[in-house]
Design brief:
The protein is an alpha+beta fold and about 300 residues long. It contains 10 helices and 15 strands. α1 links the parallel β1 and β2. InterPro entries: ATP-grasp, ATP_grasp_subdomain_1, D-Ala_lig_Van_CS, D_ala_D_ala, Dala_Dala_lig_C, Dala_Dala_lig_N, PreATP-grasp_dom_sf.
Length: about 300
């Protein structure tokens, strides 16, 4: 008997298009002999759609109630931040990925920094800025400005001069009411994926290095300019330090399913950048490519996620 899986994509946020691609890839790759896939989409305005027609939240709830597992592939706010996990929890529906608390914590880059620091994982020196405090912020050295709770590098700017600060803050505040201003960290950009298998054990595939000329922003991420090197060329000491740090923050946040933990590898070791509890999930996205490099094909990764859904 096939498992009926509701794959949810889209979302009312700036990562809508990225989520559509991830959800379509997941739905297409689930084995049709094992799964009966239902494709639900959340529009940019927040409406729920099935097969191109709007059905509303009540209609979506009825569809979800007829499914065995929910696979939410909505990146960013009102999705990855625990919102869809909360909906599933309230409806008593098994779902793939992290729960409400880890989703909310990891989506909030400021909260993630506090959790990481509490378990001994270094993060970039930074300050939290709002619209009220932004006018008083003065530029003294290069910084990175980013929305606290947006993803896909949306609204992120590298500020190298005083005149660039105000426009960068304005762009970030257009996407969130809180902004993180961090010191520029000099180091290699290394991503580590962590999977909690259905039996509760953790699996960490080889790390991936991002080689890009300049800031790894939205255009670099999705425009093909970045060079992903997997496995990353790491010595045994650095590889272990990155794996240990990724697992420590994954467990401290309480993550489930798959998460991508992004680091800067500096001369003094790993510095945490951010944690994605629903990373890009096309077959060519960073996390699936890391698992493929470890001998876990995309379809097998999806099987692990479905069978490890919250019950």
């Amino acid at each position: 008997m096939s498992i009926r899986v509701a794959v949810i994509g889209g979302g009312a946020n700036c990562e809508h298009e990225v989520s559509l691609a991830s959800a379509a890839s997941v739905a297409d790759a689930l084995d049709p002999t094992a799964y009966d896939v239902v494709r639900l989409t959340i529009g940019r305005e927040g409406g729920w759609h099935l097969d191109g027609r709007e059905i509303g939240l009540i209609g979506a709830a009825a569809v979800l109630a007829g499914c065995d597992v929910v696979f939410p592939v909505v990146h960013g706010p009102r999705g990855e931040d625990g919102a869809l996990a909360a909906l599933c929890e309230l409806a008593g529906l098994p779902y793939v990925g992290s729960g409400v608390r880890p989703g909310a914590l990891a989506m909030d880059k400021w909260a993630t920094k506090l959790v990481a620091q509490a378990v001994g994982i270094p993060t970039a020196t930074g300050v939290l800025v709002t619209a009220a405090t932004a006018p008083g912020l003065r530029w003294t050295h290069p910084v990175v400005v980013k929305p606290v709770s947006a993803g896909s590098s949306q609204g992120v700017s590298k500020v190298l001069s005083a005149e660039e600060l105000a426009p960068a803050l304005e762009a970030a505040l257009a996407l969130d009411d809180r902004v993180l201003v961090e010191d520029v960290v000099v180091g290699r950009e290394i991503d580590v994926a962590v999977l909690r298998r259905a039996d509760g054990t953790l699996f960490v595939p080889p790390a991936l290095e991002i080689v890009v000329d300049g800031l790894f922003d939205y255009d670099a991420k999705y425009g093909g300019q970045a060079d992903f090197r997997i496995p990353a060329a790491l010595d045994e000491t650095d590889a272990k330090a990155l794996t240990d740090a990724a697992v420590r923050v994954f467990e401290a946040l309480g993550c489930d399913g798959v998460a991508r933990v992004d680091f800067f590898l500096t001369e003094v070791g790993p510095v945490l950048n951010e944690v994605n509890t629903m990373p890009g999930m096309t077959a060519h996205s960073q996390a699936p490519r890391m698992f493929a490099a470890a001998g876990m094909p995309y379809a097998v990764l999806l099987d692990e996620l479905v069978h490890g859904a919250h019950r």
